[in-house]
Amino acid sequence: MDATRFIERSVLRFDHDGFCRNEEPVADPVDPRRLGLRTTEPYRHQDVEPGEPSSTPVSCPGHAERKRATTDVGAGFYLDPPEEVRKGEGPGAPAYWEYHKHKTDPARTAYVYWFFYPYNKLTAGNRHEGDWERVAVQLRNGKPQAVTFAKHGSNPCSVKWSDLNPSDGHPRVYSALGSHGSYPTSGYHRVPPTFDRTSEDGVEWRTWDNVRPVDGEPWWGYAGWWGAQEHVDGFNGPMGPYPKRQLPGVFTDEPCGGADKPPVDPPADSPGEQPAPKTKEGAIKRYEQFLHAVGREDIDTVCEVAGPAAKQAEDQGFGPCRSTFVITFQMISPAQKKALQTATVDPQRVVELAPDRFEMPAQSIRSSVTFSESDLGDSTMGYMRDEWYIVD
Description:
Layout: H1 3-8, E1 11-14, E2 44-49, E3 62-69, E4 77-80, E5 95-101, E6 108-122, E7 126-140, E8 143-149, E9 157-160, E10 174-175, E11 182-183, E12 187-191, E13 194-198, E14 211-213, E15 225-226, H2 280-296, H3 299-305, H4 307-315, H5 321-331, H6 334-340, E16 344-345, E17 351-354, E18 357-360, E19 365-366, E20 379-384, E21 387-390
Parallel strand pairs: 4-15, 5-14
Antiparallel strand pairs: 1-4, 2-3, 5-6, 6-7, 7-8, 8-9, 10-11, 12-13, 16-19, 17-18, 18-20, 20-21
Helix pairs in contact: 2-3, 2-6, 3-5
């Protein structure tokens, strides 16, 4: 999608670390020029300061005297688009480029190409508004040598220009279904805990027909987030290109492996493209996934499923999820961990609080070991962005 039109259809808000969700927008409608460096009057908002007196809700941090600008990196601004924007505009949308010089070798330069998508739809725990992806064409003395792929879940890697079979000077890049991760080959690509899928059957995006210097865009300089902030890993709108943003690995020589490592076949039980069922059974299945992960000490899955509750606990003064659950692992006996790896949940003991919220009492856990509330506590599953999460 054209990033400028995404902005024009969005509301600009200021994030208060998860609080003050009902505060009035900073701007509605949004003038793209006032987001960046094209104006002497960028949008501003008072910074927040925990512990200062606040309005409602009581838990909201108060406003500090200092005002932040939309050109301040990570100040708290985010674009909040309407849901109908998610469908995008198709392959007529622009791509954006910026020029990079190697820090020590003047013969090496690169063009970074940015692609903007209005919605990231990866079924397994990664759905958010606004999605910026990129590749880089590495040059030596002005001649293309390789393409860098900023891969999901791993460090950037490069593929030699000659291995990409460029057509009329344009290398072919595959955009993964839903996640838009960029790859040099079609097939399935491992992205823990799921797979990216690319295909020869996709629509061709002739990016060179509409390519623009990113520093010429009206919003250039905006350093906020492109999408709502849910405060759950994988669900927060990301940052995009902005001045002096560090892009590690642009000049990497680390090979992807030929024209990329051979795509893998997904396992039979790999996640599909459909959202999780918004049912009691769906909530139970997700909670069982969490219990099995606790039994295996799989911190990635544990913190992904328990993300909202973990964020709430962290805001209340507890440590981050990866620290607190390590302590939880230590408190559970080896016998309990083994039992949790195959534990199930008794549907009769699950309490429906609302159509999108179910309480999972510790007594509902069925396993070879009995669990009490003091062992794991009671958990509440809530439905958010097409998936179930522990919210309390």
